[in-house]
Amino acid sequence: MATLLYRLGRGAFRRRRWVTLAWAAVVLGVVLGAMSAGEAGDDSDSMPGIESQHAFDLINERFPGAEAEGADARIVLVAPDGRQVTASEYRAAIDTLVAEVADGPQVAAVSDPLDAATVSQDGSTAYATVTYEVTEDNVTDAGRADLTAAVERARTSGLTVEAGGGAVAGEPPAGIGEFLGIGVAAVVLLITFGSLAAAGLPLITAVVGVALTLASIVALGSALGMSTASGDLAMMIGIAVGVDYALLVVSRYREERAEGHDAREAAGLAVGTAGSAVVFAGLTVVIALAGLSVIGVPSLTKMGLAAAGAVVIAVLITLTLVPALCGFWPDALLARRFRKGRSAPPARRFRKGRSTPPARRLRGGPGRGAARRTREAGAWSVRWARFVQRRPVPVLLGSAVLLGALAVPALDLRLGMPGDEAKPTSTTERRAYDALADGFGPGFNGPLTVVVDARQADDPRSAVAAVSDRLAATAGVVSVAPPRFNAAKDTAVIQAVPATAPTSERTEELVHTIRDERHATESATGATFEVTGTTALNIDVARKMTDALIPYLLVVVGLAFLLLLVVFRSVLVPLKAALGFLLSVGASFGALVTIFQNGHGAGLLGVEETGPVMSTMPLMLVGIVFGLAMDYQVFLVSRMREAVVHGERPAEAVVTGFRHSGRVVTAAAVIMTSVFAGFMTGGETLLKMVGFGLAVAVLFDAFVVRMAFVPAVLVLLGERAWWLPRRLDRLLPRVDVEGEALGRRTPAPALAAVPDTDRQDTVRA
């Protein structure tokens, strides 16, 4: 592996113009394909294997055209205290509102709240239902603006008028996600490298990778049914890993130059060693993201595969385009103090039991003085590694206790799908939601839809009536609407309003109660029924996600364990990596529950309403964070493994790993945290939840697990950390991530110093 990548790096450096032109041609071709591609469809919301989805499918089958019904909205009217909306003084204003909305673009019909009797018992609240000719995604901005203007004019009558529903909600307020991440990445890279060129190169390659990924998603969107939702995750992951992988290779390139190697040799060695770590780190991320397909949810599968594609592109760019760009600015990537007096004989790769011979020391050049300054640059990480080396037990216990304590709130984790109740009170959707809850009861915003299949009943109407009566008699149901039959009169839909809010635990218990008691009803009537609706669907999805978590963990962790077993040729190192990941992800779940579910500190993040954690959040968090955590594992421990292979004692190898990779891992973690945290600046609570969960998970894993837990365990294990049964050692393929084969190479002859021009670099290559 190392030798192959070494040749790839040298080849890309030598043929840098062709490599750069090839990538430019690929990007241009995909962009042109995206521009000519058809409009992308929506990510499928289908949730196979749950009762709610089966009931929805039955409705679509028995009520033709139900699935194609247009979007709708609710206009909620609330009278001033002590007044009623039915008063004659408000009649003209309501008639005008209904007429104006009915004349709006794309509107199919508007119900008059007074004629339709959609008025609360006390007469204080009423609502009008607006039905559109198009689906929610196709409601134009002009249509929404017309509705908003009509609502504004109606408020002059003295009524409180708000609008909610799927047709009202437009695009959420945009945050500064990717811009914040790129900005922080630029600052961190500049501080880390002390060179504008070295700081800019990872950013350039990351942007190229993300552009290629997004263009590919658009180009394939209509064929594969991908929408922009798949692109959001791919962009977030693509920026993070694109910068991190290029950062690792550029950092290793600078180290090799500091040891005395010429530019092309340094590029080859950087790709051969750090590039090997990038390949296997990328594979772990791909496994984690592609593993989302085992859950059986089409939307998650597409998101995971799109993000995995972004990682593959980032790896390919790192192995080819990064060394090619190094060829254009071979010395500009070095720190300013290393750019004068560049000539030095290439240092020999160290062999087992021997360190690298010191390169000739030149004034300002990359010889032994440069190497010493490189070591000094990592002094803080070396001091920390020495501290862990001296006190491994307190560090191990402290990190484990800290993460364990943070994970305790996760025991109360509740999953759901927050709706309008989680939006800020500044939005009309949230105010409409609250007004309906006050006027009609908290359960009005989340009615249960019961689909009765009476085909096998002797008297379908009597059977449906019996089911309706049973529902009305169930504790926790406040009202049941008259059944609505299909054209064949053998299937009916019944709306049951719970007494509690959609996200309440009592509502979930009510759904389970109705389902548990239906056997007796079905036996007595001969009709079968299923419970669906948005509330029941969210409950079923939460259960499906919970049930899928353990199998998903087993698949992903199992495959990653095998991969790390091959990489590190150790049984205990992969086990330690998996245990550390479980600690960090548990602490992340605890932080999510503390803020977004229990509300402690929610105001600091601009979260006004707490509730259950998004149903898909645990699986997304596990998949994404596991892959990224293994990135840091490979980055850090591969240098320790390299030192052990070349003859260092295990305890000293820990220090060596920190000396060379500690700063890189720290910079990578800060960059990745910034990318994720940037998505917390959006207006949607769900987006804040995703950004916060990923950001804190990276912080916990990089700075507590990889910087404290992992080195402490390795110091305590000593030689046993690298133990591998002999039989297994013979069976496993040798991939040479640590570059041992490169250490046996015959060094290239020394090169004379030449001015830094493209022409002479080309000749020298």
Automatic annotation (TrEMBL):
Tell me which species this is from.
Streptomyces lividans TK24
State the annotated membrane topology for this chain.
Answer: Multi-pass membrane protein
**PROSITE patterns, alphabetized:** SSD (PS50156)
Signal peptide span: none
Ranges for the region named Disordered are: 344-373
- Report the locations given in the UniProt record: Cell membrane
The protein's name in its UniProt record? Membrane transport protein
Q: Which Gene3D superfamilies match?
A: Multidrug efflux transporter AcrB transmembrane domain
Compositionally biased region (Basic residues): 344-354
Q: Which SUPFAM superfamilies match?
A: Multidrug efflux transporter AcrB transmembrane domain
The similarity comment for this entry is: Belongs to the resistance-nodulation-cell division (RND) (TC 2.A.6) family. MmpL subfamily.
Transmembrane regions listed in the UniProt entry: 179-199, 206-227, 233-254, 266-292, 304-329, 393-411, 549-568, 575-596, 616-637, 664-683, 689-717
Keywords of this entry? Cell membrane, Membrane, Transmembrane, Transmembrane helix
Name all SSD domain ranges. 196-328
InterPro entries referenced in this protein's UniProt entry, alphabetically:
MMPL_dom, Mycobact_MmpL, SSD
The family database entries (Pfam families) matched by this protein are listed as:
MMPL
